[in-house]
């Protein structure tokens, strides 16, 4: 029965293709290096593209180290001492660079519960805003933040 044999051949071929595909995925993952496969760890090789209404906060300057995505109107960013970065460390006074989606606004505060000095990073409406270094001594200072739409940054 030719039909049956052909089906069998096609099935074997499909299995082989799948095996090859999975194999290459595994090799590719190994080649991309340690760390890049871990959630919350930035990869220098693949710069983040931030959705229009979100922000991304980074542990180190130039978008390095752990990263924390911030979504519009989420209240949990009121106390970064309670937001885990990795292991027993938290995000309080850790942020050193940020990316701002084109339609987003970041309001970052020196203290928890949106208190103390505040600085704004407003999206420009046309493209992602990247701030590899936080100016005016805001490095390792942010303890709470809000994400808003760029037209509602208050
Ligand atoms: Ca602080």
Provide the descriptors you would attach to this structure in a database record.
154 residues, alpha+beta, four-stranded antiparallel beta sheet, three-stranded antiparallel beta sheet
**Structural class label:** alpha+beta
Per CATH, the superfamily of the largest domain is: Crystallins
Helix content: 10-25%
Radius of gyration: 22 Å
Short recap of the structure:
With 154 residues, this protein is an alpha+beta fold.
Mind explaining what this structure looks like?
By secondary structure, the protein is an alpha+beta fold. It has one helix and nine strands; from the N terminus they run αβββββββββ. It has one helix at residues 2-31, and strands at residues 54-60, 64-71, 84-86, 89-90, 97-100, 104-111, 115-122, 129-131, 144-149. Calcium ion binds at residues 93, 110-111, 141, 143.
């Amino acid at each position: 029965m030719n039909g049956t044999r052909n089906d069998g051949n096609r099935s074997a071929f499909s299995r082989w293709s799948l095996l090859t595909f999975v194999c290459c995925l595994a090799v590719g993952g190994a080649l991309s290096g340690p760390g890049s496969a871990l959630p919350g760890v930035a990869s220098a090789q693949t710069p983040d593209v931030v959705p229009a209404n979100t922000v991304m906060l980074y542990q180190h300057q130039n978008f390095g180290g752990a990263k924390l995505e911030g979504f519009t109107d989420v209240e949990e960013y009121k106390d970064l001492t309670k937001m885990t970065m990795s292991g027993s460390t938290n995000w309080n006074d850790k942020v050193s660079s940020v990316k701002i989606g084109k339609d987003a606004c970041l309001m970052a505060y020196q203290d928890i519960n949106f208190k103390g000095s505040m600085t704004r990073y407003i999206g420009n409406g046309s493209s992602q805003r990247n701030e590899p270094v936080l100016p005016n001594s805001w490095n390792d200072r942010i303890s709470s933040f809000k994400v808003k739409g760029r037209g509602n940054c208050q």
